[in-house]
Structure formats: C-alpha cells, structure tokens
C-alpha cells in the first residue's frame, strides 16, 4: 500500500500513556492546529469533532463536522502499536484511510507516526480548495504531530490524561 503522506516524530512520553491520551477529547482539542475544535467521544474508539478553521494557503474559511473511527489492530513486533483511522459522517471528506503507529523507543520516549493511504474530498469541497488538498492535509498532520511533541516536552503527557 503506497503512502500518500508519511510523518513521524519522537515524543517525550511512554507508549502506554500516549495510547491512553489518544482516546481523550482533551488531547485532540489541545494538539489540533485549528482556530476552534470541539471533540466528543461517541464510543471508546469513535470521536466526533466540529472544526472551525481557515486554510492559510488559499484563505478559505472552513467549518467541518465528522467522526473519526480508531480501530486498534494491536502490537506488531518491532513496529509498535497499529491503529487504523477512518472518517465517517463527514460531508466534506469522502474517504480518509490512515494509520497511526506508536512505538516505544525507551521507557520515556515513543515514536508516533501518521501514514495516510487514501484521501478523497467531496466534490464541493474539492472545487473550493482545488489541488491544494494534499498539501493542506500534509501541513495539518505535521502541525498536529509538532503540537503533540511540544506539549509532551513542555507540559507532559499526564496533563492530557486528566
């Protein structure tokens, strides 16, 4: 499976705490690089988000709602924990297939990777932003991972687990 987007960072957190944090609304609200986001978990592995943002590249305001399903595929030896990500009930994003991988590299550090394999926008949204969609997604994923890295370094992962 080819990767459309592949981003990896090292964070100052043990793997188990990081895994717990991704299932907390506070984590997503803290690390999301958007003007405003509210997150609500509808099930232990499904969250709904409402986002208000502006795409810097083309200066287009965006309001988006949808759900992200996180399916834990378990530990894969030498690769870490694999979680598949899919969107649903989003009028702007028709398909998003991605993987989140978390691997311990020491007792206090982990690698976090996001790998997007399929990304298709609805035609109305695509018409509005044109060919910039992959660049916008790539930029947002980079910012999410950078925000996670910074938060873990400055405030620690436990701040997100409360």
Please explain how this structure is put together:
The protein has 162 residues and is of the alpha+beta class. It has one domain (5-33, 70-161): START domain (Alpha-D-Glucose-1,6-Bisphosphate, Chain A, domain 4), CATH 3.30.530.20. It is 29% helix and 48% strand. It is built from five helices and seven strands; from the N terminus they run βααββββββααα. It has a seven-stranded antiparallel sheet with strand order 1-7-6-5-4-3-2. A hairpin with a 2-residue loop joins strand 2 and strand 3 (46-55). The longest helix is centred in the last third of the chain and has 22 residues, at 133-154. It is globular and about 45 Å long. The N and C termini lie far apart (37 Å). The relative contact order is 0.24. The mean pLDDT is 88.
Q: What's this entry about, in short?
A:
It contains five helices and seven strands; from the N terminus they run E-H-H-E-E-E-E-E-E-H-H-H.
Outline the secondary-structure elements.
Layout: E1 5-11, H1 15-21, H2 25-31, E2 36-43, E3 46-55, E4 60-76, E5 80-88, E6 93-106, E7 109-121, H3 123-129, H4 133-154, H5 158-161
Antiparallel strand pairs: 1-7, 2-3, 3-4, 4-5, 5-6, 6-7
Number of domains: 1
How many strands in all? 7
Counting H and I runs of at least 4 residues, what is the number of helices? 5
Order of SSEs: EHHEEEEEEHHH
